[in-house]
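Revision sheet: structure tokens.
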Amino acid sequence: MAPNGAPPSRPGRAADALDAISRRPVLSDPLTVERLGRGTYAIMPRPDRLSSAQREALIVSPHSIRRTP
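Predicted:
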């Protein structure tokens, strides 16, 4: 365990997951992961899988972030 109580991470774990999603998009359905640049990715709802209301509900805005005291 890491000092913060999280399990230890291994280098490349996130890269492996992103690679798996790119090869098998069903793993992230109904979302899609797009590579924007080297080491930069965006996660977005797939327009063919969600209604416009569902996609809109997933958009993060400064007002939608829940803050805990």
